[in-house]
Amino acid sequence: MLDIALIRTLAAIRGESNSYSPISRLPPEILSKIFYHVPRAVEATPQIWPTSVMNSVDIVPTTLVCRRWYNVAINSTFLWNSIADDLSPRLRLQRSRGTPLNLLLFGKDHKVLREILTSGQPIRELHLDCRRLVDSTFEVASAPELEALTLSYWEYHNRRTIFQEHTPRLQQLTLTRSLIPINSFPSLRRLCLCNTISPLLSLEDLLSCISASPNLEDLIFSAIKIRVGTAEDASSKTHLARLRTLTIKSFPLPQLDVFLSRLSFNPTVATSVMTETERLVIPSTHLAFNFEQLSLWYWSNEARAVMSGPLTAIYTESDDVSDMWHFDLLHKFPLHHIRTLWVESCSSFGWQSIFPLLPAMTALSTLVIYVEHSICILELFMQISDHVRPLCPSLSTLHLLVNEDGINNGASIHQFVAFRAQVGYPLEEVVVETTYMLDEEGIRDSLAPYVRHIDIRSVEELSMMSLPPICTTELHRRWPSWTKDWRSL
Fold it and tell me: Where is the F-box domain (predicted)?
């Protein structure tokens, strides 16, 4: 009895002592917000967008510190509304007390999911691997609070709808190796389709899914194959009035052309197209838009182009191009609007393929060259376009980007600047931007007779083409910031 009394007395003394520590003076609301940052985030597969699922096991140690921390943690329902680990689901259901749940489950957990659905407790996020899932699981209840849904390996046998066709608040849907439910998703803002499975998805089913979600803002298609009919009606288009980003990756070219011909969206939509096709793909909706900057990267059978304007941009690349990689640029894109051309990389055996683009760039005023990989491009500009004028007659500024390797072929720069002056179209300015110590006096002596202004700048990082804000943000895993490691994207 004395031992028990002693233990209780010591506990009371420690509790009283703890009450005077600075951290014990924090209000419970502040302490619970601190606890919110303790659990690690749990990643869904695939994780395209960030999730709200947390590893609740991480919060358990905080409940063992003292009675006050225990009470605060246990009564913070948002700390227990994630089910994604080995901690008892029923314990989380009890402690979350009706707070909308964030679930990361596998098909083997279908009993847990069914129990949650039938209990009526709301679900905010559900990320589910559907292998071994019982077909009828999605039929037992609706999901009126569901905002984000990821389904992997979902196949239907009887019904093609989910949650009794009642998901009025669903804003984010990711389907990977799954078929498409035929629900109408009126609130859907983000849709991602990855790695379709057989039978091939029909174009009409895909367009029906998109048109049933009129509020779509972000679309991702990655490694999907569609079945295109022999008599598709190209005049029938699905218009996406609120779309802001479109991401396409690993989409076969013939189907991609048909698919894009059936979509209609505003030219301000930022677009990323990454394929393994014979040419760079540019959506027809953007062909009349006023892009003022163009960046080119060409090496062996790989090509990349970035077109940028004040409001939006296009990123297009292919890893398996042919000699006609620039077909869309040459025959569809308004090259006469381009005022600044960035040549990021151009191999010595591929620079001639850029030549067909240059005569159309009649408004080009600034040429930016990454000297280490692209100095050979200057030879193209020393050709006469119409027997009188040089290519790009409006060119007034040459901007050279020089890294620590320095300038290995300064003679070609001198020759180009002298050529422009000799044919009566002299440059107004040469800018040399460098991270390396250069012979500034030698550069000035070489170019001064031919150009009015020479600006040599020492910088820590070389400039990159300016992009609108939507392209400099990591929106999702298929859309990294375009300015992140720009030259190795």
Answer: 23-83
